[in-house]
Amino acid sequence: MGSLTFKQGIHPEYNKELSNTKAFQKAKRPEQVIISLQQHIGAPCQPLVKKGDHVDMGEKIADSDSFVSAPIHASVSGTVKEIKTIQTPIGKSSQGIVIDADEEDTLAKGIASPGSLSDLSPDDIKKIIREAGIVGMGGAMFPTHVKLSIPEGKEVDHLILNGAECEPYLTVDHRMMIERPNDIIYGTKLLMKAISVSKAIIGIEENKPDAIKIMKKATANEDGIEIKELETKYPQGGEKMLIKALLDRTVPAGGLPLDIGVVVNNITTAVAVSDAVKKGVPLIERSVSVTGSGVNNPINLIYRIGTTIDKLIEEAGGLTEDASKVILGGPMTGFAQPSLDIATVKGTSGVLVLSKDEVADFNPQPCIKCARCVDVCPQYLMPVNLSKYAAKEMFDELEDYQVLNCIECGSCSFICPAKRPLMQYIKVGKNEVIAKKRNKS
């Protein structure tokens, strides 16, 4: 049987060779971190500290009473300099806690393993994940304990781990599978126990043969955990595409994976879960690819959350003379940054710097009705119509044409020969539809 996949999609240049052989290095401790209180989808946290307080590394510094939220911890030991309004990587404003780091890296009291897989209950595991502040680390930043809380009346029979890493340039999940396979397996078992399933599938794109080999070896004697190869195609890492490829199940329009018995998590999230149980360490650092032709030495790093972009670029040898554009995330779904002093968050898996030659100026031309955007849309939508309705603020029509099923993968914009910013129009329109529905409720 060949590699598994879904219908439609695109094949961009992947450019992963820039960093896929670069083993993780530990980034230098920053002199200061700026930790946003909006680190995830859901309610922002409220600060538990004030200016002048001393904090230890791993100490909880913000939390929320909302279910769809996750606490935030200090990534360094030091002194709270101020709490102020900051700009997040997605261009929104948030409150942020600024901490001047000391040189001690003093670990907060009480950080220790809370138990092991065999003696923790499903509720214990979900509570540990919540208190560790773990969110989806593939970029979605959905609080993980919420994803693992199966509503009454729903039944789940499979856990899927996303090892596809289909975004061009990014290689942190790839390196994680090569360097920490046993922690991925341990985290997988914890996640399986948390949702009471006996079957897990780890899907990996076939352009990572070394990772596939290592993960197959690591799971050779594990009951219920399978490694399956996926065709290299974007957006293979979308959870709806993963489920279709691996289980041939379709998430209903407006539905969630758990509506068809599946929970999807990311490879790096599983490692964070493993660390929270094995070591008692909350989510205070994560992995990132700092890559692209606009940096001198593309690299994979483990960095403290709240480190600013410029410090990570320094670790990659600095900007090249022709560096032109900095994107947080991958080129398909990431966000261009107006400044290098913006701080990273739990979902920052990539710092991509493109050179001047790669950032072409273009003028969008009128649609030529070629329908190529329709041919590639993995959700079987009509991006050309959706973008027109969004531009004309025809929100009722947008909803009728299922705009809420758009996963914002950007395949339509990529393929458009007229260079129309289809996904960007759709995204703005989708946000307006969501806001209108929220105001009605």
Question: Would you give an account of this structure?
Answer:
With 441 residues, the chain is of the alpha/beta class. 27% of the residues lie in helices and 20% in strands. It is built from 13 helices and 17 strands. The strands form four sheets. It has a six-stranded mixed beta sheet with strand order 1-14-13-17-15-16, with helices on one face. The protein has a four-stranded antiparallel beta sheet with strand order 2-8-7-4, with no helix packed on it. α1 packs across α4 (181-195), α4 crosses α7 and α10 (383-391) packs across α13. It is globular. The mean pLDDT is 95.
Radius of gyration: 21 Å
Instruction: Give the overall form.
Output: globular
Distance between the termini: 48 Å
Oligomeric state, counting identical vs distinct chains: single chain
Let me know the average pLDDT.
95
Could you list some keywords that capture this structure?
441 residues, 13 helices, six-stranded mixed beta sheet, globular, alpha/beta, four-stranded antiparallel beta sheet, single chain
List the helices and strands and how they pair.
Blueprint: E1 25-26, E2 32-36, E3 46-47, E4 54-55, E5 60-63, E6 72-73, E7 78-87, E8 93-101, H1 122-131, H2 144-147, E9 158-163, H3 172-179, H4 181-195, E10 200-205, H5 209-218, E11 225-230, H6 239-247, E12 262-266, H7 267-278, E13 285-291, E14 299-304, H8 309-315, E15 323-328, E16 335-336, E17 350-355, H9 372-376, H10 383-391, H11 395-400, H12 411-415, H13 422-440
Parallel strand pairs: 1-14, 9-10, 9-12, 10-11, 13-17
Antiparallel strand pairs: 2-8, 3-5, 4-7, 5-6, 7-8, 13-14, 15-16, 15-17
Helix pairs in contact: 1-4, 3-5, 4-7, 10-13
